[in-house]
Amino acid sequence: ETGVTQSPTHLIKTRGQQVTLRCSSQSGHNTVSWYQQALGQGPQFIFQYYREEENGRGNFPPRFSGLQFPNYSSELNVNALELDDSALYLCASSPQTGDILEAFFGQGTRLTVV
Amino acid sequence: ILNVEQSPQSLHVQEGDSTNFTCSFPSSNFYALHWYRWETAKSPEALFVMTLNGDEKKKGRISATLNTKEGYSYLYIKGSQPEDSATYLCAHLSGNTGKLIFGQGTTLQVKP
Fold first, then answer.
1. Which residue of A has its CA nearest to B50?
2. Running DSSP on this structure, what letter comes out for residue A26?
């Protein structure tokens, strides 16, 4: 067990809708990263939050946004869903930012956009 | 090498066989190389974090080596067991970005 939990585990949304995915990090971990894994690919970095501020972003459009809260929980929000957003979304928490030498992953949320 | 590449993509072995996988990554601006073991419907589990050229780490029957100058890492499994069946991911941490760049994974199936 990594101590990182994500909810929901599965979700089906319609194209154009908005979705919020949630992650509960390990206590004391002030850095959370989100990754998207499309079928047949490795996880792709979406963005990272450190102490409630965005701290790096991958090649994803602005309709992907996030929030991090003081209680070690975080959210990934996706607006105007597209079919290609169908993927497994993983969050990973770390005790520190920058030189991440430890990352603890949740089990992921499987998003299907129809 | 611009991206992180893993080979083979999949592997089927018999119980008791030893096996190894390769992870290739950009050798410039290296910071760390992570290996994860990922079973279906579970969280990716960290196996090793390697930072030094020539590093060799071991956990039970699993070991890994690192060559940062040429940009590759090998993961070895000695005497594979059915419970070793999983996808093995490597991820490169470049510089001080905190951003892990993953390979596409090697899926191992161990037959009893």
1. A101
2. P
Considering only residues 79 to 98 of chain B, which have any Cβ-Cβ distance to chain A shorter than 8 Å?
89, 91, 93, 96-98
- How far apart CA B5 and CA B105 sit, in angstroms, is 8
Q: Rounded to whole angstroms, how far apart are CA atoms A110 and B29? A: 33
Measuring CA to CA, which residue among B21, B10, B27 is closest to residue B90? B21
Q: What is the pLDDT of residues A6-53, one digit of tens each?
A: 999 999 999 999 999 999 998 888 899 999 999 989 999 999 998 899
pLDDT tens for B21-68 read: 999 999 888 889 999 999 988 999 999 999 988 899 999 999 999 999
Distance CA B102, CA B112 (A): 30
**Tokens 């089927």 belong to residue:** B12
> CA of A29, closest CA in chain B: separation in Å?
14
Partners of residue B19 on adjacent β-strands? B77
Rounded-to-integer distance, Cα B4 and Cα B26, Å: 7
